[in-house]
Amino acid sequence: MSQDGQKEEKKPKAVALLSGGLDSSLAVRMMLEQGVDVEAVAIKTPFCDFDCGKGCGHRVKEVADEIGIKLKTVYFGEEYLRMLKDPKHGYGSGMNPCIDCRQMMYGAAKEHMEKTGADFIITGEVLFQRPMSQNNRALHIIESETGLEGKVLRPLSAKHMPPTDAEKSGLIKRENMGDIKGRSRKGQLALAKHFGVQEPPNAAGGCLLTDPAFSKRVEDAMQHAQDIPSINDIELLKVGRHFRLTGDAKLVVGRNKDENEVMLALVEDADVVLEAKDYVGPVCILRGKSDDSAIATAASIALRYSDAPKDARSKVRVRAGGSEREIAVAPADNGWLESIRI
Ligand code: SF4
C-alpha cells in the first residue's frame, strides 16, 4: 500500500541479455522507458567476450553502469566446447553454432529470471539481422527448446513478431515496441538519438567463430582432440601460425613478441618449446605426440621463421619435460609449409 492507501502496482521486471553493443542497450532503454525493472545477464564464451559483440564486449560493464542496471556475468567454458563439438542445430558459415549458442544464453537468462522472479526476458535481437539465428524459424526453435515460448521479448523488432506473454497480459504496450528488421542500422541510430546515446558503439561484427580462418583452426582442433580441446588449446588457437604435423601433433609459431609472451604463458607440462639458438626467432610450441621425428620437423619450421640462413643447418634449442637439448636442422621448405598450415 502507498501512503495514501492506494494499492501499489507491482512493476514488471525483465532480465536482459546484454552484449555491450548498441542493440541490446537500446532494448533495455526501451523497457526502462516503459517503467520496467531490468537486470542484465552478460555471457562470456571462450570465443567471444560477451554475446555477439566482437570488439565491444569490454564495454558491457560500462554500458550497464551507464544505463544504471544490475549486471550478472555468466561464463561458459567446457560445456560450451562440448556443445561446439556437435551442435544439434549445426554451424553457420563458419564454426558458429548460433542456434545452440543462443539456447545456452537463453538458458542462463531463464535461470536468472526464475531466480529473481522476473516476468520475461528481453534481447537486442533484430529480425533478419543475422542469417542463422535471427529468423522466425530459428527464434521459434530457440524459445521452444528452452521452454521460453512467449517469454522472450525483442523490443526492437517486436511488432514483426507474434505478441509475447508480456504484451498479451498488458505488462508491456505493444504499440510502443519497435518495428526494425534487417541489416540496416537506420532504425537503431534513430533510437539511439531518441535516447540521447552519445557516440553509439559500432555494429557488432560477430564472434571469433564466424571468422573463416579461425574456424578452420577450431575445426582442426575438434577433429584431432580425443574428446574436446581444452580451454588452453582454444586460447592457443588465438595466437601464432598453426601447422598440423601429424594426426597427433601440431606446431604453433609466434608471429611477434607479444604473441611469444602469450604463448609462453600457455605452455603446458607436456609441451615441447623450440627456439632458434643463435638467431632471433619465434617461440614455437609443439603440442601432442612429440617423438624425435615430430621434434625434428618442428625444429626445421622454427628455424624457417628465424633469422637463421635459409641454406644451412643451424641449432635449435628444444625444451621438454624440464630438460633442454639442442639439435641441428635445415630450415623447412616454404611450399611444404603452406601445405600443412591450418
Ligand atoms: S555469433 Fe553465433 S556462435 Fe557467436 S556468440 Fe553470437 S550466437 Fe554465439
Any key phrases for this structure?
five-stranded parallel beta sheet; 11 strands; 342 residues; six-stranded antiparallel beta sheet; single chain; Rossmann fold; alpha/beta; 2 domains; binds iron/sulfur cluster
How is this structure best described in words?
The protein is an alpha/beta fold and 342 residues long. The protein folds into two domains: 195 residues, HUPs (Rossmann fold, 3-Layer(aba) Sandwich), CATH 3.40.50.620; 102 residues, no CATH class. 35% of the residues lie in helices and 17% in strands. It is built from twelve helices and eleven strands. Strand 2, helix 2 and strand 3 form a beta-alpha-beta unit. Helix 4 crosses helix 5. The longest helix has 19 residues. It starts with 12 loop residues before the first strand and ends with a helix. Bound molecules: iron/sulfur cluster. Iron/sulfur cluster (SF4) binds next to helix 4.
